[in-house]
């Protein structure tokens, strides 16, 4: 029977989960940290889920895992073999579910290991991050039939949203690396390097802080960084009168 109240509640719960995930990953720049937060949020937020993991492939090769419980990390690790729900989800590009591992005929070796660890049901959803990284979000239950159709839909939405957020994390990481490289080159560059040295001497601060002082001045004056540096060097180079 169609129940609008239950349907509305489900929408609100999912929206709350996506908001929580967004808040958790909004300012993260480290990909591994982002995965750790993701699996923790998913484990705690999706009803019926006891554990959560994430399988990562970079340029088509296994590149790591994240797990809400280190004891189960081997289930997400492709180093134990390619036959697993995660790889099935990645290869097929669709949700893979086993409602009861006791009757599962796929991934026999994986299923045996999962059963020994107390896993009774599994769901793996493919996650597209960017052109270099793909993966699978793996949800585990300790009772059969816990991963209902409604929870499968939640997992699919979670995986799609996670892909967007993880792509943003990788983008921020690339920007941070580029900024660090630019900072390094600026520290070695002629007049800018001289200006940084002046500020370090005057303020007794490290080079990155001195560079930030220059940047703040350039922004406040609406002039290029190099021009600010030149003005500073010229000013301190002038002989004092008297």
The CATH architecture of the largest domain is 2-Layer Sandwich
CATH topology of the largest domain: the name is Beta-Lactamase
Average pLDDT taken over every residue: 83
Identify the overall geometry. Answer: elongated
Number of domains: 2
User: What is the H-and-E element order?
Assistant: HHEEHEHEEHHHH
Name given to the CATH homologous superfamily of the largest domain: GAF domain
**Distance separating the two termini:** 94 Å
Q: Care to count the β-strands?
A: 5
The secondary-structure class comes to alpha+beta
Q: How would you characterize the largest beta sheet?
A: 5 strands, antiparallel
Domain ANTAR: 172-233
InterPro entries: ANTAR (IPR005561), GAF (IPR003018), GAF-like_dom_sf (IPR029016), GAF_ANTAR (IPR012074), WH-like_DNA-bd_sf (IPR036388)
Protein name: GAF and ANTAR domain-containing protein
Keywords: Transcription, Transcription regulation
Structural features, described:
It comes from Micromonospora cathayae. Residues 172-233 form the ANTAR domain. Keywords: Transcription, Transcription regulation. The structure is a single chain. With 242 residues, this protein is an alpha+beta fold. The protein folds into two domains: 4-170, Beta-Lactamase (2-Layer Sandwich); 189-237, Arc Repressor Mutant, subunit A, CATH 1.10.10.10. The chain is built from eight helices and five strands; from the N terminus they run ααββαβαββαααα. The protein has a five-stranded antiparallel sheet with strand order 2-1-5-4-3, with helices on both faces. Helix 7 (207-221) crosses helix 8.
């Amino acid at each position: 029977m169609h129940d609008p109240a239950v349907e509305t509640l489900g929408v609100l719960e999912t929206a709350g989960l996506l908001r929580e995930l967004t808040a958790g990953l909004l300012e993260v720049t480290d990909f591994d940290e982002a995965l750790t937060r993701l699996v923790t949020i998913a484990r705690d937020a999706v009803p019926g889920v006891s554990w959560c993991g994430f399988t990562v492939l970079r340029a088509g090769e296994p590149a790591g895992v994240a797990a809400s419980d280190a004891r189960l990390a081997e289930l997400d690790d492709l180093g134990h073999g390619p036959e697993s729900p995660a790889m099935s989800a990645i290869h097929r590009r669709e949700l893979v579910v086993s409602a009861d591992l006791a009757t599962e005929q796929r991934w026999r070796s994986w299923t045996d290991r999962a059963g020994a660890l107390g896993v009774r049901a599994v769901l793996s959803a493919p996650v597209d991050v960017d052109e270099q990284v793909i993966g699978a979000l793996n949800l585990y239950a300790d009772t059969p039939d816990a991963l209902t159709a409604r929870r499968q839909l939640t997992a699919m939405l979670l995986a799609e949203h996670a892909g967007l957020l993880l792509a943003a994390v990788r983008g921020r990481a690339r920007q941070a690396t580029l900024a660090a490289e630019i900072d390094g080159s600026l520290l070695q560059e002629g007049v800018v390097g001289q200006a940084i040295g002046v500020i370090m001497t005057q303020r007794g601060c490290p080079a990155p802080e001195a560079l930030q002082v220059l940047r703040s001045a350039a922004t406040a004056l609406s002039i290029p960084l190099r021009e600010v540096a030149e003005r500073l060097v010229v000013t301190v180079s002038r002989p004092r009168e008297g």
